[in-house]
Amino acid sequence: MLLRHVATTLALSSALLLTLPATAAEPTTEAATPDSAPQDAPDTPSGEAASSDASGDELPQGLPLEDIQALAQVFERIKQAYVDDVDDRTLLRNAMRGMLEGLDPHSNYLDEDAFRTLHEMTEGEFGGIGIEVGQENNQLMVISPIDNTPASKAGLQPRDLIIEIDGKSTDGMSLEEAVGMMRGEPGSSIELTLLREGEDAPVEVSLERANIQAASVSSRMLSPGYGYLRISQFQENTAQETSEAIQALQKEAGDDGLSGVILDLRNNPGGLLDGAVSVSDLFLDSGLVVYTKGRLQDSDLTFEAHADTALPKTPMVVLINGGSASAAEIVAGALQDHHRAVILGTESFGKGSVQSVMPLDDNTGIKLTTALYYTPGGRSIQAEGIAPDVTVQRGRLELEKSGFEIREANLRGHLQNARGEREQEQLPDSPIAADDYQLGEALNLLRGINVFQQPGMRRHEAPSATDDTASTDDSTGTDNAPASTDQ
């Protein structure tokens, strides 16, 4: 009787997953429809048989009868012998959770709380510490902290391993359970124990939960003509916010316009596929942005750029690192393959899979990996990541204090320049490079690009006829320093 009960439940669940539509997920594809289900059932393998319950309802062909029987036996043993009484609903949901989490790190069962939390995250507001986590080798790992949240302020870093939450070991803990423990009422405290590369002992971190309102886009001018765009995650309105930020930078740049833009995707854990495509479209005027391939026909999708672009000729540098994942890698890969931007930093996280959220009938759902995505050049970066064009490791730049320097202009009685005296220029300091070495290098790269793009490579004006420059051959002079030109 128990076997028939479990088998019927599995059969109904299988049929349900093929007919329910998908909704927005991280990243998500369009809805899976009944027409997208495989038309031909696989042949029944040797030693396996289709079966039916007492009512005559047939089970899907190909289900391994022996394994179904083993599942029923485990179910019964738990009911009879487990130290605490466990209801059927809990056991069956745990079975569903185990089926999904055994597939890959990103497929899982979503109970009522997890299902609600997922929608809160995509809408950009939720309660917790502001951290994106995943699992690697069954260990709970920080993918990236979200900007301006308790996690980022406490110094959590990508690839930190969380080994304890409030003193409870995360060994064997499901991703859903771990996320549930880290979420809570704003103002409540939480203790994390971390393993961090380069540290000899575990790191203890105390945080206070907050109401996380994660604005996905921020911007500012780094120096005259050079703008900075930071996207911390891809939400529903990220493309619109990015467009507005670009307009604000253009207005601040004035009539001279923007000489360059840095797009910072470091520690961006991803988000919505549509958001990544729309942001890429802002910087591309044609061509493929990304395409996905899966087993179902509806999983094979292509996304193209439109003609309108926000910055058609402005040089760009995109910053990435090991915390740049998923949707962030879509943007970096698209701009790299179209040669629209120089990618600078370190290799990205390497999450090249697409998850679809399939709601069930009781405010729960499943998040299932349904496809892999590919960059316009046909690269699948799953488990490999985006390799930067220019590798710049995270570091700290120590600036030397400039001492007094004696130059020609400091000597008494020096000859004046043909154009007259000019006020000695002061070298600008480099607070950006000192605070953020990668960002400073990105800004220097943009400046270099602009130098080499200028006609004549910044050739100075030719001297006028009134200038006293008739003699250019200083063969009688005692100072034989070679003449030079600023190319």
TrEMBL record:
<feature type="compositionally biased region" description="Low complexity">
    <location>
        <begin position="46"/>
        <end position="58"/>
    </location>
</feature>
<comment type="similarity">
    <text>Belongs to the peptidase S41A family.</text>
</comment>
<protein>
    <submittedName>
        <fullName>Carboxyl-terminal protease</fullName>
    </submittedName>
</protein>
<feature type="domain" description="PDZ">
    <location>
        <begin position="115"/>
        <end position="183"/>
    </location>
</feature>
<dbReference type="GO" id="GO:0008233">
    <property type="term" value="F:peptidase activity"/>
</dbReference>
<keyword id="KW-0645">Protease</keyword>
<dbReference type="InterPro" id="IPR005151">
    <property type="entry name" value="Tail-specific_protease"/>
</dbReference>
<feature type="compositionally biased region" description="Low complexity">
    <location>
        <begin position="463"/>
        <end position="479"/>
    </location>
</feature>
<dbReference type="InterPro" id="IPR029045">
    <property type="entry name" value="ClpP/crotonase-like_dom_sf"/>
</dbReference>
<feature type="region of interest" description="Disordered">
    <location>
        <begin position="26"/>
        <end position="61"/>
    </location>
</feature>
<dbReference type="InterPro" id="IPR001478">
    <property type="entry name" value="PDZ"/>
</dbReference>
<keyword id="KW-0378">Hydrolase</keyword>
<keyword id="KW-0720">Serine protease</keyword>
<dbReference type="GO" id="GO:0006508">
    <property type="term" value="P:proteolysis"/>
</dbReference>
<dbReference type="InterPro" id="IPR036034">
    <property type="entry name" value="PDZ_sf"/>
</dbReference>
<feature type="signal peptide">
    <location>
        <begin position="1"/>
        <end position="24"/>
    </location>
</feature>
<dbReference type="Pfam" id="PF22694">
    <property type="entry name" value="CtpB_N-like"/>
</dbReference>
<dbReference type="Pfam" id="PF17820">
    <property type="entry name" value="PDZ_6"/>
</dbReference>
<dbReference type="InterPro" id="IPR004447">
    <property type="entry name" value="Peptidase_S41A"/>
</dbReference>
<dbReference type="InterPro" id="IPR041489">
    <property type="entry name" value="PDZ_6"/>
</dbReference>
<dbReference type="Pfam" id="PF03572">
    <property type="entry name" value="Peptidase_S41"/>
</dbReference>
<keyword id="KW-0732">Signal</keyword>
<dbReference type="InterPro" id="IPR055210">
    <property type="entry name" value="CtpA/B_N"/>
</dbReference>
<feature type="region of interest" description="Disordered">
    <location>
        <begin position="454"/>
        <end position="487"/>
    </location>
</feature>
